[in-house]
Amino acid sequence: MIPLQISPFQYIVNGVVFSSIIVLAAIGLSLVYSIADFANFAHGDLMTVGAFSGLFSVAIFRPMLGDMGLFGLPLWFFLALAFGMVAAAVIAVVTDRIIYQPMNDSGSIGLLITSIGVALVYRASIFLSFGSDSERYGVARQGPIPWIRESFGVAVTPRNLVVVILATVLVTGLHLTLTRTTLGRKMRATADNADLARVSGIRTDEVIIAMWLIGGALAAAGGVFLGLEELVRPRMGFDILLIVFAAVILGGIGSVYGAMLGGLVIGMVHELVPLFNQWGIIPVGSRYAAAVAFVIMVAILLVKPSGIVGESG
Amino acid sequence: MSVATWVNDTLIRDPTERRIFAALAVITALLVVGVFAGVIGPRFLLFQVALVGMYALLSLGLNVQWGYAGLINFSVAAFWGLGAYSAALLTAPNSPLGMGLHPVFGFLAAIVVSALVAILIGIPTLRLREDYLAIASLGLAEVIRLIILNERQWTAGSSGISGIPSLLEWLPLTGAATTASIIVVLLAVSYLFLRRIHRSPWGRVLRTIRSDEDLAKALGKDTYRFKMQAFVVGSVVMAIAGAFYAHLNLYIDPSDLVPLTTFYIWIAVILGGTGSNRGAVVGAAVVIAIREGTRFLNDIAFIGNLGLDVAPLRLLFVGVLIILIMRYRQDGLLPPKDELIWPSAQKESSAASRGAAASDGGVVTDGTTSGGPSDGGKDQ
């Protein structure tokens, strides 16, 4: 079979877009891992919850705002994004309050297994309220931006650009929060050593709420962007969870910056698989993109279990 | 020990267990009455018995990993699938390999393949914190599913493999009765074998690892080796269950390799009682009741008229069940107690505890179990 002639740079563009989504999801997962101390298997389905909450709000915002646009996308999409983020953040906190908090003494493994139950409840609720079909936000199809195509020879749509820019803004915002605000310092202290943070007078309870709010909102942003780039599906989050876990492990469990780096690498690799295949580096094509990400994760576990950034483990 | 004393010692003494077994006995009696009354087809019931047996086998396998050694394996469906596909590919005449071998080779291949894969996934993960295995095994399951789905030239992909031969067709029984008897024998053998190794020094080391791995290390145990052995044993049991399923259903496709299958087995084990082999069997029966029972919900006019789709309701039910068990009854229905103790020691201790009118906690504390460095079992 003759491979389609796609510029290698096109794969890199795709990789940057996909990485943005993975990074957003990985940060939340890593925050929960470091502060609440368990592998949250419901994180993928939290992304789905965010994506579907956004979809739900489209029906409200779209008639209100009509065709008003911003950066080449309709204004209502941005409001739907915000709605999805708020909804997922609230649901994450509520889940923590009614399910995870009361069983705090059952340890990280008990919480891990419980999170599977939570994931199934999220997904079942979505099936029950939205059905099992794939949906779209209804943003009109867009061609690539002409001047980028002419000068660089790669197709970049306005929505690609919006995803990458907004993800960068969110990640920068998180970075500033973690480093420049009291809340951020408290979060880092709690992640490092919760007991020490508590005896130092940090109200770890507030930190945990903040952590779920941030993690839920970022997961929802990732989910909405994934829904915008592909489809809004009830299984979208769970299907991507493994890649997000790979990113978190690659970066080193519990390290937020590691998760960002891991997300970038795993997202890139995921999209570059067809290119590597074309070049004969790996024998499998894009159908195995998730498997390649997983194999990289296992290889990292073998060589450096603490990940490329972190040292906990 | 006669059956009567066993029943007296293990069932009657504990009021909770007495209620559970009474409920099971009533349900069994109802099913039997249903068959004689002609409401339930005997073939259908035998098929369900075979399914329960297969689920029980899977649960026993997971119980070795999670219940004995505390290993979080989220690739139950994958090992089951490896077993089923090993059997189907080697024995079905119209499989892509087209060999049509005797089922024995299918079972052998299932054992070898699953053991190798278990070792491969164990090497990078079993030295690390237990949640790494959870993530890596879920990933492994996904990779295996992708390979079976995409490599059509070897596995027939999503169209599946049909024409798998039945087992032991020369037996003078109906097909359904034969498979049901085979699984009962398989289950009994596995049960006795796993119970024997659980009570052995090997099993005690595993229980120590589960409750305190550092302690086991301090006692000079190579915990990695023990965990690997438990992981391989459990995975092989799962693959045997898979190979049996291929010969039960006579058709196999990748759609059952999804993580939900794995989570069903997890429910069976934690509901039954983590670490308890009896619990695993009972849990498997409950899970089959949930899976098969919800299928008939649509037939009930009232629910059928609501126009609800049953699959998401079942998903919701399963999710809520996991949360509730983890929160309110982590010990499960039949937590492991007496079954960890040698029968002879058990006799003495039950006599002692009855004499002292002590509660059933007495058996654990009265020293007859001191062969192991720790009683283990429940650390969460």
Automatic annotation (TrEMBL), chain A:
Family, as annotated: Belongs to the binding-protein-dependent transport system permease family. LivHM subfamily.
CDD domains the record matches: TM_PBP1_LivH_like
Keyword Translocase in record: no
Membrane-protein topology: Multi-pass membrane protein
Organism annotation: Haloferax larsenii
InterPro entries associated with the record: ABC_transp_permease (IPR001851), BCAA_transport_permease (IPR052157)
Transmembrane regions: 12-35, 41-61, 73-95, 107-131, 152-178, 207-228, 240-266, 286-303
GO molecular function: L-isoleucine transmembrane transporter activity; L-leucine transmembrane transporter activity; L-phenylalanine transmembrane transporter activity; L-valine transmembrane transporter activity
Stated name of the protein: Branched-chain amino acid ABC transporter permease
Places the protein is found: Cell membrane
GO biological process: D-alanine transmembrane transport; L-alanine transport; L-isoleucine import across plasma membrane
One GO CC term, this protein: plasma membrane
Pfam families given in the database record: BPD_transp_2
Keywords: Amino-acid transport, Cell inner membrane, Cell membrane, Membrane, Transmembrane, Transmembrane helix, Transport
